[in-house]
Amino acid sequence: MKITIVGSGYVGLVTGACFSEVGINVVCVDIDSKKIENLNKGIIPIYEPGLEDMITRNMNKGRLSFTTSIETAVKESEVVFISVGTPPDEDGSADLKYVLAVARDCGKHMTDYTLIVTKSTVPVGTSLKVKEAVQDELNKRNVSIEFDVASNPEFLKEGAAINDFLKPDRIVVGLNSERAESLMSSLYKPFTLNGHPVIFMDIVSAEMTKYAANAMLATKISFINDIANLCEIVGADVNKVRKGIGSDTRIGHKFIYPGIGYGGSCFPKDVQALIRTADENNYNLQVLQAVESVNKYQKLVLFNKINSYYNGDLKGKTIGVWGLSFKPQTDDMREAPALYIINSLLEAGAVVKAYDPVALEEAKHHFGDRITYCDEQYETLIDADCLAILTEWPEFKFPSFKIIKKLLSKPLVFDGRNIYDRDEMAKYGFEYFCIGVRSKK
Ligand code: NAD
């Protein structure tokens, strides 16, 4: 079977690489010709563990190729996955122009039965719009070609995307035709042999499932952050509270780590888009509105701590920053708390020296020459007044506190990810501020 993946970003590349890994012939398409030119040279545009090796291996086997020509790809494929971006529109709703442009391209170029699968995260009702766009193009061509549409939202996590795709908790597929079901079953068979199920459902429910999943995860994060802020006020330790509640199996330990808010390309935009969908249907999603507003507040909690430590006068203070990506194991900085915190520091007149294991190049697009980029974590601390930790990269978890203390003008750490222990930090002689735990005076 030959399939096309349109949109060669995080989702498209991982999807294409993983399908080719199990022996399917895959063509990945993108409108960004530079990206395709690089991919054809083996240059991968994103950092995702294991992806480069998998892409190279399958390109060499002739099962994976890259092109800007959607026409050739669609003509040759029985299944076309749409995995282009769905960024937020000005009002927070998902902008569908890229998805619908691909749907139109499918209608313009398909010559035989085609199953068009939306993998991008799209609001309820989008698959119907995809169907209409394809049909419209077929009508313009005055041809009658059978096709189906399906919704197959993607649940992969950046940083663990390959593993998530190869061994998914579940695969959700929304469709309304037996032919489409049989095609999707056979495509996903290699990934379901060890018991991970494909959950078939109607299209509307599949579209909703993706948003509900991300909204639930965002809710857990905002919930624990809200509790963390209260813990700090009343003198409780959120790290202990987290363990105490997480051991209840109805709650669980995952996704209740306090921090500086959720970021990334999905949670912020998907929460907004779901609120928007509710608005359009005259329903008020009260919980999610609170989730969003807690997150906005939380993104500046660490900045506020730093600012108030210096009595609102950050002019000339140098802050060493460890971590820029929105989470570890990725170079993705979309909606990263680091963007908000560093911009606030700069606006307040502070100097920022930053290190991240993989996101420095990406950071240059955001900050240009407004901050200093360091190739090594301790370099950020030379002539710095304090250290701020914004991403919980594993390599930050056991640093040399001796070196940190020696380099900083005073032993002062602001930890937005609670990766150190307050009592130990006090023993080492640090003033230590984290989330949801009062600092030791
Ligand atoms: P991305 O921005 O990394 O990649 C999108 C790609 O689509 C870009 O390379 C862009 O050039 C290309 N593109 C845009 N219009 C095109 C067109 N007409 N023809 C061909 N290519 C086109 O986006 P992403 O992070 O991969 O996300 C894609 C979708 O998947 C979004 O809807 C997102 O919400 C969803 N999603 C993302 C993740 C994630 O972790 N990144 C996880 C699950 C779902």
From TrEMBL:
Q: Which organism is it from?
A: Lutibacter oricola
Q: What keywords appear on the UniProt entry? A: NAD, Oxidoreductase
- A GO molecular function held by the record: UDP-glucose 6-dehydrogenase activity
Domain of life (superkingdom): Bacteria
* Leading EC class: oxidoreductase
Q: What is this protein called?
A: UDP-glucose 6-dehydrogenase
Which catalytic reaction applies to this protein? UDP-alpha-D-glucose + 2 NAD(+) + H2O = UDP-alpha-D-glucuronate + 2 NADH + 3 H(+)
Pathway, per Swiss-Prot/TrEMBL?
Nucleotide-sugar biosynthesis; UDP-alpha-D-glucuronate biosynthesis; UDP-alpha-D-glucuronate from UDP-alpha-D-glucose: step 1/1
Q: Which NCBIfam families match?
A: NDP-sugDHase
Task: Enumerate the active-site residues.
Answer: 266 (nucleophile)
Q: Which InterPro entries match?
A: 6-PGluconate_DH-like_C_sf, NAD(P)-bd_dom_sf, UDP-Glc/GDP-Man, UDP-Glc/GDP-Man_DH_C, UDP-Glc/GDP-Man_DH_C_sf, UDP-Glc/GDP-Man_DH_dimer, UDP-Glc/GDP-Man_DH_N, UDPglc_DH_bac
Known Pfam families for this protein?
UDPG_MGDP_dh, UDPG_MGDP_dh_C, UDPG_MGDP_dh_N
What residues bind substrate, as annotated? 155-158, 210, 255-259, 263, 327
| Protein function | Catalyzes the conversion of UDP-glucose into UDP-glucuronate, one of the precursors of teichuronic acid.
Q: Name one GO biological process term.
A: UDP-glucuronate biosynthetic process
